[in-house]
Amino acid sequence: MKKFQAITTFLIVLIFLFIPFQTFAEDKQRIFDEANLLSESEIVQLEKLAATNSHKQETDFVVLTTEGEHGIDLEVYMGDFADDHFKGNAVLLGIDLKQSDVMVMGFEKGQDLIDNDRATKVREKVTPYLSDGDFFTAFETFITTSERYMRYRPGVDPDNIFFKTSWQIIFAIVLGSLITFIMVRNVNPKVTTTPATYRNEQLTRILRKRDRYIRTTVTKSYRPRNNNRSGGGGGRSGGSSFGRTSSGRSYSGSRGKF
To answer: Is the dihedral of CA 243, 245, 246, 247 positive or negative?
Structure first.
């Protein structure tokens, strides 16, 4: 019995030791630099960044560069590429160096959380770096921004100022100071004296009474109307479709020039 337990314990420890290496070994390629815009060290850094963020969201963040040598429109090329290599959750950034085209494309969960509006926001953040030829920063920005946007439910603006940590700290300080000020201002000091404290009952007496009518005062209170107004409206939900691949998969997206 003890021998069996020892063997079982050894196998469990072996499994736990093996899992990290197995996960690393099966990690996939996500940076496809066909246009040779990156150095080897930059590709390694981006692959690590893409792997980390992809695991966070269970969504592949993929970069695809081409010089237009395939003679295929960038959108069609990216769709076919996704069908062949990334059939699940994915967000792709593709650039065609020859045509100066850039596109962000989302599939499955990526389509839901990186809808057309968010894809446009991501593209607009990336485009200035592409125009300056800073491709590494552009791809790094695409990965980190896309992952951050996917933390928010559809219909929420992820760039809302109230989601920024610095503004949350400032807001908390201002709110705390305001609450403290109100509490201090409304504190009533404890009354320890009354009129009877300084009144001498033996020397105090009423000499005479007289009633005199002065005026009548009527107090009116304002009663606001109840118009039963309701306003506002929710934003558009995520998952909007930009197009479909040749296999029929729908995707969100945003396309432009750099």
So the answer is: negative
What tokens appear for 170 in the block? Answer: 């400032």
Q: What is the pLDDT of residue 197?
A: 62
Structural domain includes residue 194: no
State the Rg of the chain over Cα.
Answer: 34
| Other CB atoms within 10 A of residue 27 CB | 13
CB 105 within 8 A of CB 94: yes
pLDDT recorded at residue 228: 39
Average pLDDT along the chain, 258 residues, taken 10 residues at a time: 56 50 61 97 98 98 94 96 97 97 98 97 98 98 98 90 55 60 64 61 59 49 38 39 94 97
35 near 65, Cβ under 8 Å? yes
Amino acid occupying residue 106: G
Amino acid at 8: T
Q: Is residue 125 in some structural domain?
A: yes
Which range marks the domain in which residue 114 is found?
A: 26-161+237-257
- For the chain, the domain total comes to 1
- As a dihedral over the C-alpha atoms of residue 165, residue 166, residue 172, residue 178, rounded to 10 degrees, the angle is -160
Contact predicate 254/119, CB 8 Å: yes
Considering the domain boundaries, does residue 82 fall inside one?
A: yes
**Does some domain include residue 215?**
no
Domain CATH number, residue 115: 3.10.310.50
Query: CA angle at residue 65 from 112 to 92, to 5 degrees?
Result: 10
Taking the whole predicted model, whether its pTM rises above 0.70 is answered as no
